[in-house]
Design brief:
- The protein is an alpha+beta fold.
- It has a domain of 143 residues: Ribosomal Protein S5, domain 2, CATH 3.30.230.10.
- 37% of the residues lie in helices and 25% in strands.
- A four-stranded antiparallel sheet has the order 1-2-3-4, with helices on both faces.
- The longest helix has 35 residues.
- The radius of gyration is 40 Å and the shape is elongated.
Length: 224
């Protein structure tokens, strides 16, 4: 009987010890949680403590003002130049630059990389801007422009016609701000020649006010 009582006492002691260790672990977990999260005061959110934590930096992105100039790439061609040591490969970019308010220009540049060639062409186009005399939404009078083997014919059009043109002629007229026009390429199919012929024709346009001034008439008398 004494042995049985001793065994029962040992079993109860071990069970009590296991329960005490479990309670101690639970209390330790509760203490850690209370250290990490502080109780929220009235009207204030709860704060969390963590070692080495920093407040996240809020980066403000400033919106850059959009430029009025628009660029359109017409052609990118690969050019090979034969030099003493072999062949030198580069790229040629043709870009039309305009603000759709009567100013347009053509840029042509070469570089070893496409992106650099486009950037140089854009800079070249902004240096060679011309002012186009626009009468309402079309050109004042018919005209033909030439550049090398390229020849482009331009004719005024009524409201609602749109831009009837193709190839490299169309982006030049669009970025110049002309909305209604008839165009036809009569010469070389080269985009560079067609674009330069279009610029040559637009540059030779004469506005009505200059013609009226030369003839000694008013705009109403000239336009009847």
């Amino acid at each position: 009987m004494d042995l049985e009582n001793k065994d029962e006492m040992n079993v109860e002691a071990t069970e009590n010890a296991v329960e005490e260790t479990a309670e101690v672990k639970e209390e330790a977990k509760v203490e850690e949680a209370s250290v990490e999260e502080l109780p929220a005061e009235e009207g204030k959110p709860s704060k969390r403590r963590s070692r080495g934590s920093k407040k996240p930096k809020i980066e403000t992105i400033e919106e850059k003002p959009q430029s009025e100039w628009t660029e359109q790439v017409v052609q990118i061609s690969r050019v090979t130049k034969v030099v003493k040591g072999g062949k030198k490969l580069s790229f040629r970019a043709i870009v039309i630059v305009g603000n759709k308010k009567g100013q347009v220009g053509i840029g042509c540049a070469k570089a070893a990389e496409v992106i650099i060639a486009i950037q140089k062409a854009i800079a070249d186009g902004r240096k060679n801007l011309i002012t186009v005399p626009i009468f309402k939404t079309t050109i004042p009078h018919p005209i033909t422009g030439k550049s090398g083997a390229g020849e482009v014919m331009l004719r005024p059009a009524s409201q609602g016609t749109g831009i009837i043109a193709g190839g490299a002629v169309r982006p030049v007229l669009e970025l110049a701000g002309i909305e209604n026009i008839l165009a036809k390429s009569l010469g070389s199919k080269s985009p560079l020649n067609a674009a330069y012929a279009t610029i040559n024709a637009l540059k030779a346009l004469t506005p009505f006010n200059e013609v009226a001034k030369k003839r000694g008439l008013t705009m109403a008398e000239l336009l009847n």
